[in-house]
Design a protein that fits this description.
- The longest helix has 34 residues.
- It contains 13 helices and no strands.
- It is mainly α and 203 residues long.
- The chain has two domains: 52 residues, Orthogonal Bundle (434 Repressor (Amino-terminal Domain)); 123 residues, 434 Repressor (Amino-terminal Domain), CATH 1.10.260.
- The protein starts with a helix and ends in an 11-residue tail after the last helix.
- Helix 2 packs across helix 3 and helix 7 packs across helix 8.
- Helix content is 66%, strand content 0%.
Length: 203
């Protein structure tokens, strides 16, 4: 987290002193946050967002607004590098990089099946919703072409493969229910602190 905080400060082209001033903390506190010695509180994070930082990225390591960003977020959450995650998904490193950068790419069913086996939250990656029945019903989205492709792939699979997919999805859903509280908290912070473009200081 501290590395992403420093990365966002540099993206905004702010010095540590200026960032500290904008967020209402001392320079020493800012330096400690970026070293990982101390963790900032919610008031600091809200002020950080007002300065233009992407708080969701700082907290989770992913850009949550896109499928590519959510995939990257899941990989980071699970503690995998790009090459290791590509090996799990049985794709090349170049394909994994493309999946995490190009929102238009379709994620193959076989790939999703592989990464779900290590705990990746497929429903969230593909649809952008947590594995929470009440919230999913309230925010239900119409099927997209890639969703239909996944369903067709499933239907065409032999029964043993379908059984395996159902078991994997159930395990992933069970794991998600344990994590949904933390996910919701991160989302609430992200909604309150949408990234803004840096304000131009008035002379």
């Amino acid at each position: 987290m501290h590395n992403r905080l420093r990365e966002e400060r540099k993206r905004l082209e702010l010095s540590q002193a200026r960032m500290a001033d904008l967020c209402g903390v001392s320079l020493v506190s800012q330096q400690n946050y970026e070293k990982g010695v101390r963790k900032p509180d919610s008031a600091y994070m809200e002020a950080l967002a007002s300065a233009g930082a992407d708080v969701f990225y700082i907290l989770t390591g992913g850009r949550a607004g896109t499928q590519a960003g959510r995939l990257q977020n899941e990989r980071c959450r699970l503690g995998y590098g790009i090459k290791e995650f590509a090996d799990v998904g049985e794709v090349s490193t170049e394909e994994q990089r493309a999946f995490e950068s190009d929102e238009t790419l379709h994620l193959p069913a076989a790939y999703l099946n592989c990464i779900s086996a290590i705990g990746a939250e497929i429903f969230w990656i593909v649809r952008g919703l947590p594995e929470d029945d009440d919230l999913r019903e309230k925010q239900a989205l119409p099927y997209r072409p890639e969703d239909r492709d996944l369903i067709e792939d499933y239907k065409l699979s032999p029964p043993p493969v379908q059984d395996s997919v159902r078991a994997i999805l159930k395990n992933a859903a069970d794991a998600k229910r344990e994590q949904v509280k933390q996910w919701k908290e991160a989302q609430e912070i992200a909604q309150k602190t949408q990234p803004k473009t840096p304000n131009t200081e008035q002379k």
